[in-house]
Amino acid sequence: MSTQCFGNRWENIKQIGQGGQSHVFLVSDKTGEFTGDFVLKRLLNPKRIDRFEQEVKAGMELNHDQIAPILDFSYESQTKEKPYFVTKYYSGSTLTGIAPLHPLEALTIFIKICGAVSYAHSKDIVHRDLKPDNIILDDKGSPIILDFGICYFVDENNRLTETMEQVGSRYYIAPELEDGRSSSVTHAVDVYALGKILYFLITNKVFARENYTGDNDLSRLLQNSQLDYITQRILSKSVVAIPEQRISVEVLKQEAIKIHKLLNEHFYPNRVGSQCRFCGEGKYQSISLEGIHAWSYYQSSDSIKSANDFRLRCNAIACDICGNIQLFKVTDN
């Protein structure tokens, strides 16, 4: 029995998935132009041809290491076969299968994802369906963004989503897209989803709407006050209801880079319970310290140096293991 081929080029190895819209096959290239295994996605539902073409177009326009490339495609008008496209095969797990991660690992992956989404935004392409299931790891552990089937081209003002048809996962969809609304698609919808993806990577938990405080607070869940950095600098600026209050993906990426550095150095200013930045094992505890007795010299009008005795008012914390002390000046407001 002959082996099934697609476009007289892609040899079917096996079917690896089936959804309501497409069949997914593991294939190899008979021409030898590409070596190894690849994924062929064949359209089943003709009513979804617009989305199919949208995904192909996005894959052809976007050239980034963290975005799955489109290697070949065929539309129904070109052949008698059902439309299909071919992309790289990634054997790793999706983000859904790797959570929870250490915050530093999660931030490393998150920074790369933000870089790819920022690049797509620079091309005026909004993904609209970012979620852990749509991001997979390659053999080096780097994240690859998949499924641009419902992406939005800003400059074309396109509306592929039918009225009242909700897109995206209900936990990651921006509020302005709920109930099938698609009249206000901006880059900010991806920013909203990215904040929730980082939270999921760290906790393996999801939350409704903007409920990342209270019982869902990161520092409370993981007993690490340093994670307030993520709450204050990322979640509070991405997982918010009003799109105009969200920062850009590029700024989100830069914040994540800064937070990664601060967490790596075990540092959270003046916070009891934070990890010692010196030994990396102990926790800072409050200690009683009224001030520092010090001398300063100043230049008098007659050019004679004199000494000024003063006390510097400060707060102090000390590591309960190595004794490292951190001092913080008390400023008068």
Summarize the entry for a quick read.
With 333 residues, the protein is of the alpha+beta class.
Structure, described:
Helix 5 (228-238) runs antiparallel to helix 6 (249-264). The longest helix has 20 residues, at 103-122. The chain has six helices and 15 strands. Strand 2 (10-18) and strand 3 (22-29) form a beta hairpin. The chain has helices spanning 49-61, 103-122, 188-203, 218-222, 228-238, 249-264, and strands at residues 5-6, 10-18, 22-29, 38-43, 70-74, 84-88, 125-126, 135-137, 143-145, 152-153, 284-286, 292-299, 305-312, 314-319, 325-329. With 333 residues, it is α+β, with helices and mostly antiparallel strands. Helix content is 24%, strand content 23%. The strands form five sheets. Strands 1-2-3-4-6-5 form a six-stranded antiparallel β-sheet, covered by helices on one side. A three-stranded antiparallel β-sheet has the order 11-14-15, with no helix packed on it. Residues 159-167 have low confidence and may be disordered. It is elongated and about 85 Å long. It folds into three domains: 5-88, 2-Layer Sandwich (Phosphorylase Kinase, domain 1); 95-264, Transferase(Phosphotransferase) domain 1 (Transferase(Phosphotransferase), domain 1), CATH 1.10.510; 284-329, no CATH class.
